[in-house]
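Render this sequence as a predicted structure.
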Amino acid sequence: MKTLLKNMIKAIVDKPDEVSIKVIENENTLRYELRVGEGDIVKVIGRKGKNISSIGTLLSSVRAKVGGKKAFLEIIE
């Protein structure tokens, strides 16, 4: 999942070399800490929020795969 998410983000941002993802796992949650280059947060969200909506759908599918843990995405610029 981490690799898929990272490749998706790298494909839409202007500074793909600055993309990094850290996974923090707790008993009930998975948190994906996404770091992007300056100005790229707008690209991640996308026009009218379409990119972030697609990422949200992907994170929802993670919940089913990891035993009901909730998955969250934190974007840091």
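Summary. The chain has a mean pLDDT of 88. The chain has one domain: 2-76.
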